[in-house]
Amino acid sequence: MKRRTLVTGVGKGLLAAGISGLLVTSALSADPIKIGVVEHKTGPLAGGEVVTHTPNIELWVSQVNARGGLKVDGEQRMVEIVRYDDKTDPAEHIKAVQRLATQDEVDFMLSPYGTGFNIAAAPIYAKYNYPLIAVSAITDKIPELAKRFPNMFFTLGTTTGFVEGVRDTLTKMRDAGAIGNKIAMVNVADAFGIELADKARPILTEAGFEIVYDKSYPLGTPDISPVVKGAKASKPDAFVAWSYPPDTFAITEQAIIEDFDVKAFYTAVATCFPAYAGKFGSKINGSLGAGGVNPDTPAMQEYRKAHKEVTGKDADYWASATYYASLQILEQAIEGVGKVDRAATIDYIKNNSFDTVLGAISFDENNNSERYWSVGQWRDGVFRAVADVGMGDSVAAVAKEGWN
Amino acid sequence: MDILISGLLLGGTYALMAMGLNLQYGVARIMNLANGEMLVLGGLSAFWLFTASAVSPLLTAIIIAPLSFIGNWLIYRYLLLPLVRRSKNQGQLEVDSILATFGMSFALVGVMVSIHGEYFTYSYLADPLSVFGSTVALNRAVAFVAAVAIGGALYFWLNRTYAGTAVRAVSVSAEASGLVGINVDRISAFAFALGGAVTAIGGTLISTFITLDASIGVLFTMKALIIIIMGGVGDIRGAIIAALILGLVETAVATIVDPGLTLASAYVIFLAVLLFRPQGLFGRRTT
Amino acid sequence: MKLAEVRNLAVGIVVALLAIAVPLVSDGYWLSIATTAMMYIALSTSWALFSGPTHLIALSTGAFFGIGGYLVGTGMSDYELDFWLMAAVAPFVAMFLALLIGLATLRLSGVYFVIFTLGLAEMIRNLVSWIQNNFLGSRGLYVLTDFTDAHIYWMLLAVAIVVFLTGWWINRSRLGFALRIIGNDEEVAKHVGIDTAWSKVTLFMTTGFFAALVGAIVAPRYSYIEPNVVFSPQLSFLVVIMALLGGVHRLWGPLVGVIPFTLMWEAITIFFPSSTTLFLGISFLLIVYLIPNGFVGMFESGLARLRR
């Protein structure tokens, strides 16, 4: 007997309420393939997830179902998403993933948003043999994690990779005579910000840069102006902020107000958001940030167009495409195996190359895809990659010419 | 000079966060944990009206004030007054109002997420303004002026008008006020509603320079609680002075010592004040 | 021992034995609910040990919990120390901190105490982040162990049982008697020669000890420690809410608050996956209006009616 399960179709909302909290959707021609995801609808990470993950799930499901579904067992099966909200609470997250695996018995699961949540959920994915194609998880522990969780794959790079991207960008600009070697660096005093700053100190120093200002600020700082004033007073040639979304906005706004005119201005997470360009318009032309894409490939152009058409929103210029690629990898692996067999799907992901919006993606012996863009630069309304690992298609960064 | 100017502006921001809650807690005796969400709701309205139809957040502040007043009056009248009537003592009311307003804060977050789940980020008056040779953001300066105006008006109203005197009387002792013929329920409802309106105005102004999102309200609730307790419950001067102290201290520490210690230093000041004055700066000693 | 006490003890032992058996029955979904519930049972019950008799609402659970989780995280990740060592050290660090806080807050009453503890928790969170940022450095705080949910559940259960025994012992001891007098009227307590300060501080230290221990045990479950996740003000509030829902004047009050609360939370997550937060808020409100004296109050008035 098939267990009754809770199912919500994407964009359809709740379909019907049944007794004891269990809902049933009517079966289409064949039973749908159920794919689970636990989201942060509220809490500190909600604002980022809803930009980078959620629309891509909507886009992918609508595309797959428009083609009639996934080819499995010689028939076409539609895709259905089962989703829960964890309110950015790890205990809730673990519970919800357990529920997806053992109560809803979903066929596959998508990866959560945030390094901590990917790692917290990984043991459950491993226990029930679900492939976990992590996207929003940037870590230097990939070999150790991959050994522990052979079902876990990594697509967005390492902490060191991101710092080295910044180093390479700045080094090239210095070699081209655009900037000198003085860097002002600030970071948000939270896990990822601390980790990046910690890595950046030796890496930037070894590359011959002098860090003339190096301060942290607490998460939730209501007034960032002393930090920006302090950085400006140190008269740097380049400014690097390992920042989170709200402070990325605040630092940039304050830099504009202070007319903090450096030739290289870098802020980390959320610089790639369409809302960032929406807020600052042309003023941020030449600003650097984490991520970036190559907007010129046909696959990327097609993806961005479809994203806008289906979800009504622009995709961000970083992990959006990577998250969509993770869905493409899952799709191709399921169809490649030809049936719902999770262990075989994990093997398939390990041993094959996938054709995605990012180009060909395959995984090394550490389940890591060494192909990602690491630094982007705003150029006339597009956030172009200027540094990458394994992509080879980034352009040279140019000096920022003021906040106009 | 930079420290003084930026610090005062930040203090003004804090005053905007705290004055509303000060009325709500000081007079109506409701420790409103949904206060931050009310502030964010003001910010959301400003964001939404600005991006959808280019309405100035200043205009939104004027529109939102009466709406928030009515909304908060209804909340007090129909959700909180039953709790006030039911409770036998202040302790019981504190427990009930914590539970109820915590529920409200969740509900409000849920509503706001369904309206706009992303960051409420837009640009308004993000221009430099030179004050005595120090560069500040125009939007922060506007918020400061509004804080001064609201604080001044409240102070004048509380101390110079008959209605204001009644409000102060209730904040000192609800029981005694009832005995001298003051309609305590009406005054409390009015103070709660007025507090909500002030908070919502604060939210619209704050959203012009702080990036808000639906879930961030709890940070503002905590800051506002710290400020009103530091100032002393129920005294508008206390809240304003505590807000200014925190603003100045945070800016000074960020500039002179280390920006990493700003928030920690604010809490140290708060704790120190309570250690030496357990009833807050302007609080009345209760037994 | 009186008959009622023997009966209570017997009930307690049966409940504990049943609780021990949970992982043997379910190793998946229900166990993950039980683990989360057990975390809150241990936290809320130990919270109520202090806040029940003294009527002082402490919002510092998140700070102690965070110290536990953070010390395990930084010890294991940055210094390659053993989990057991860190889990043993953390509660004593928290207890020492609770001692300082307890001494500092003696003069505070009512809402001033509540917000003081809240401000203190925030200060600790900021200081820890700052120290880590400037002196310790970090490559990310990973807590990778081979513990399964069942192990963590049993450890939490053990903590919860110790909390209950402690509470039971305190109630029977001079300390519990003293605290009840303090709770009723502190002046009276002073006049009859009770060292009110020391009684309060001792209990507060107990609370801090257990909260940090729970934080340390839960750290391997989270696997990756972020200061802003473990030093969570939300957690402090939730612990208070659950304890109040149950009722803080009985040792088993928080227990009967946590269990329905966790189940209700889960039911809402299932019924309303797209607006969980909204409906959680609404259900809080309903509880406040419909169950005015907490579940214990509902329980006891029901019992009283039955007996009549």
Task: Kindly summarize this structure in a few lines.
Helix content of chain B is 75%, strand content 3%. Chain B is mostly helical and 287 residues long.
Largest interface: pair, residues per side: A-C, 52 and 45 residues
As an assembly, this protein is heterotrimer
CATH superfamily of the largest domain in chain A: Response regulator
Helix content of chain A: 25-40%
Please state the second-level CATH architecture of chain B: Orthogonal Bundle
What's the number of extended β-strand segments of chain B?
Answer: 2
Note the run of SSEs of chain A as H and E.
Answer: EHHEEEHEHEHEHEHEHEHEHEHHHEEEE
By CATH reckoning, the class of chain B would read Mainly Alpha
Tally of DSSP helical segments of chain A: 13
Average pLDDT reading of chain A: 90
Span between termini of chain B: 43 Å
Biggest sheet record of chain B: 2 strands, antiparallel
Characterization of the model:
The complex is a heterotrimer of chains A (404), B (287) and C (308). Chain A is an alpha/beta fold and 404 residues long. Chain A has helices at 46-52, 54-66, 90-102, 115-127, 142-148, 159-175, 191-206, 225-233, 245-258, 274-280, 298-311, 319-337, 342-351; strands spanning 33-39, 70-72, 75-77, 79-85, 108-109, 132-134, 152-154, 182-188, 210-217, 238-242, 264-267, 288-290, 354-356, 359-361, 372-379, 382-389. Chain A is elongated. In chain B, 75% of the residues lie in helices and 3% in strands. Chain B has a two-stranded antiparallel sheet with strand order 1-2. The longest helix of chain B is centred in the N-terminal third of the chain and has 30 residues, at 57-86. Chain C is an all-alpha fold. In chain C, strands 1-2 form a two-stranded antiparallel sheet. In chain C, α2 packs parallel to α6, α3 runs antiparallel to α4 and α3 packs across α9. Chain C is built from 14 helices and two strands; from the N terminus they run αααααβααααβααααα. At the A-C interface, β4, α3, α4, α5 and α7 of A face α2, α5, β1, α9 and β2 of C.
